[in-house]
């Protein structure tokens, strides 16, 4: 069945550092791919999405490119801020939404 | 926030008791979902609904039932709570089908003692 694997955390970075969170997927067809973010005590919020191969999703300085050849959808940001501290989830959707285990990011001043 | 309200926000209950969690939306979205969140597992789908009285099972549906008698309300029932059902439960909605983004409520933390 469909599944998502993302890098284990926690990830700790200094402010203004470059961020990469790896995500790879297994799917039988052509899923849509998503990144969600969860702040403490809240539900998940959509961060960005891509619906087909080579699409790039972007939002709030975060980017991810749908790579069919490597079945990947890595999340990147050029310069993280303290306010980016949260848990990040990669997800795919074909018949239903499947989530990775989540990666906790802490950004220190 | 998309208009999603989950109640209660916190609940402690004893093993063997029935528990009902409520999700209420004001967006008139067709699709509603119940997920559970556990460390190391991300979110796993319990049940979903694609319309009033139309529901289906997700990947971890054993021990849970759902009902949707109105567009705006989706209830999750644990028939006889067990300690393995201690979790954070999230309701989500979407306007479109499976490939549409989900909008989440703030969750219900359930502890079964």
> Uncertain regions of chain A: pLDDT < 50 for 5+ in a row?
none
Unreliable parts of chain B: none
Count of individual beta strands of chain A? 12
* Shape, per Cα inertia axes of chain A: globular
Task: Provide structural commentary.
The complex is a heterodimer of chains A (109) and B (113). Chain A is mainly beta and 109 residues long. In chain A, 0% of the residues lie in helices and 52% in strands. In chain A, strands 2, 5, 6, 10, 11 and 12 form a six-stranded mixed sheet that branches. The termini of chain A are far apart. The model of chain B has no long low-confidence stretch (mean pLDDT 94). By secondary structure, chain B is mainly β. Chain B is globular. The chains are: A mainly beta (109), B mainly beta (113). The interface between A and B is medium-sized, with 24 and 22 residues.
How would you briefly describe this protein structure?
The complex is a heterodimer of chains A (109) and B (113). By secondary structure, chain A is mainly beta.
What layout of secondary structure does this protein have?
The complex is a heterodimer of chains A (109) and B (113).
Chain A: E1 3-6, E2 11-14, E3 19-21, E4 23-26, E5 32-38, E6 44-50, E7 56-59, E8 62-65, E9 75-77, E10 86-93, E11 97-99, E12 103-108
Parallel strand pairs in A: 2-12
Antiparallel strand pairs in A: 1-4, 3-9, 5-6, 5-10, 7-8, 8-9, 10-11, 10-12
Chain B: E1 4-7, E2 10-13, E3 19-25, E4 31-38, E5 42-51, E6 54-57, E7 64-70, E8 73-78, E9 87-94, E10 103-104, E11 108-112
Parallel strand pairs in B: 2-11
Antiparallel strand pairs in B: 1-3, 3-8, 4-5, 4-9, 5-6, 7-8, 9-10, 9-11
């Amino acid at each position: 069945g469909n599944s998502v694997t993302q890098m284990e955390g926690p990830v700790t970075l200094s402010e203004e550092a470059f961020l990469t969170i790896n995500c790879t997927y297994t799917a039988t067809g052509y899923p849509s791919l998503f990144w969600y973010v969860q702040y403490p005590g809240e539900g998940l919020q959509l961060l960005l999405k891509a619906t087909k191969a080579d699409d790039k999703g972007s939002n709030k300085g975060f980017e991810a490119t749908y790579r069919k050849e490597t079945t990947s959808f890595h999340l990147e940001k050029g310069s993280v801020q303290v306010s980016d501290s949260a848990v990040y989830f990669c997800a795919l959707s074909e018949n239903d939404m499947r989530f990775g285990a989540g990666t906790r990011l802490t950004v220190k001043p | 926030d998309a208009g999603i309200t989950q109640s209660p926000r916190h609940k402690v209950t004893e093993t063997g008791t029935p528990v009902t969690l409520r999700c209420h939306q004001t967006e008139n979205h067709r699709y509603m979902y119940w997920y559970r969140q556990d460390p190391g597992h991300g979110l796993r789908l319990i049940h979903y609904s694609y319309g009033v009285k139309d529901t289906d099972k997700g990947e971890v549906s054993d021990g849970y039932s759902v009902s949707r008698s109105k567009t705006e309300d989706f209830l999750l029932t644990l028939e006889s709570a067990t300690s393995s059902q201690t979790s954070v439960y999230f309701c989500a909605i979407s306007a479109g089908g499976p490939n549409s983004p989900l909008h989440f409520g703030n969750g219900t933390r359930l502890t079964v003692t």
